[in-house]
Amino acid sequence: MLTADMLVDLVRRFLLRDGETITWTKQFTDGPAVDIETSTRALSVKVAADRLRIGRAGWVDAVVVADQDVILVPRDGAPVHLNDRATAAELGPRLHRGDLDPVAFAEIVVLGQWPGGWQTVVVVDPPQWRGRYPAQAPLPPVEAPRTWRDGEELQLSFFASREYAEAVGGRAVLDVTAWSVRVPAGAPATWELRPVATAVPLMPPWPDATERAQTASADDWHEAYGRVYAALPGDAHVPCPNCGQDALHVAFTGPTGGRVGFASFWCDNCRYGLHLSRATAPQGVELIPIELSADEHAKLVPDYTLVTDA
C-alpha cells in the first residue's frame, strides 16, 4: 500500500528536472494523494486506480498520476515511468501474452506519447464517443479498437481524440488520430500515428458550406481513387485531392458472399467524394452487406458531397 510519503519519493525519482527542488507539500489521507510545489511548478499527485485500465491488471500494485505523467508500481519489480517511450514499449510482451488489456496499452501510449490538451481519450465505443459532442461538430468516423495476429506478430489499431482550446479566441476544438501498434513475439512494441482530423470545432461558430468548397476536379478524385484502390487492403496514405488531408476512405457494398458491388470513396475531413456504381472489392477487403438498413449503413459510410465536373 502506497503512502503519501512514497508518492513524494516517486516524484523526486522520476519527475523532478535538473535543478528543481520540492519547496512545499500537502498530504491527503484519502487516495492517497499529495499536492506538491517545486521551485518551478505545482503538481497534484495521486493513486488513480480507476483512471487507467492498466490499474486493473493483476500484476499491478498501483498507478500514480501526476497531471499527464504516469508512474506504474508493479507487484514485483521496481516502479517505472510510463511516459518514457522505451519503457512503454517494453510492455509489448505482456500485450502479446495476453496479460495486458489492449485498450489499457493504448491509453498508456496515447497519454505518454501524444501529450497536450485538457482531455485525451482512446475511442472505445464510437457511438458513445460521438454522443459526447454537439451534433453540429463535424467529427470524422472512427472505429473501436481491434487486434489481430499476422504470423507471430500481434497488431492493434485504435483511434484517439484530444480536446484543447484554440490559441486565438479560446474556442474548444478536438484533434483525432489513428494509431497502429505492432508487437513481435518477445520484443518491444512499436507504434505510429496519423492525423485524421485537426481542430474540429466543438462549439460555434460551426463550419459552413464555403469552408468545405470543392476545389479538385472529378478527374483528380478518380486518380486518387485509383491510387488508394491499388494499395488495398493496405493504406496508401494518399492525400485528399480537395483538402490535402490524409483522410481518404473507401468502402464496398454488395451482396453477401460476392466481390462486386458499389464503392463509396470519401474524405473524412472535407466530406467530398465519389460514388462508383460498379466496383470489384480486392481480396482481403470485406464488403458491407447490401442487406443492411440505411441507418446501419450510415454508421459505416458517412454522408458526403459527391464531386462534380464543374
> Helix- and strand-based class?
alpha+beta
Strand content: 25-35%
What percentage of residues falls in helices of 4 or more residues?
A: 10-25%
Mean pLDDT: 89
Ends apart, CA distance between termini: 69 Å
Report the order of strands and helices: HEEEEEEHHHEHEEEEHEEEEHE
Short recap of the structure:
With 310 residues, this protein is α+β, with helices and mostly antiparallel strands. The chain is built from seven helices and 16 strands.
List the helices and strands and how they pair.
Blueprint: H1 4-14, E1 22-28, E2 33-38, E3 42-47, E4 60-66, E5 69-74, E6 80-81, H2 85-89, H3 92-97, H4 102-113, E7 119-122, H5 126-131, E8 146-150, E9 153-165, E10 172-183, E11 190-201, H6 218-231, E12 248-254, E13 260-267, E14 272-280, E15 288-289, H7 294-300, E16 305-306
Parallel strand pairs: 12-15, 14-16
Antiparallel strand pairs: 1-2, 2-3, 3-4, 4-5, 5-6, 7-9, 8-9, 9-10, 10-11, 12-13, 13-14
Explain this structure to me?
It is a single chain. The chain has 310 residues and is an alpha+beta fold. Helix content is 20%, strand content 35%. It has seven helices and 16 strands. The radius of gyration is 23 Å and the shape is globular. The termini are far apart. The relative contact order is 0.08.
Give structural attributes:
7 helices; alpha+beta; five-stranded antiparallel β-sheet; 35% strand; 310 residues; six-stranded antiparallel β-sheet; 16 strands
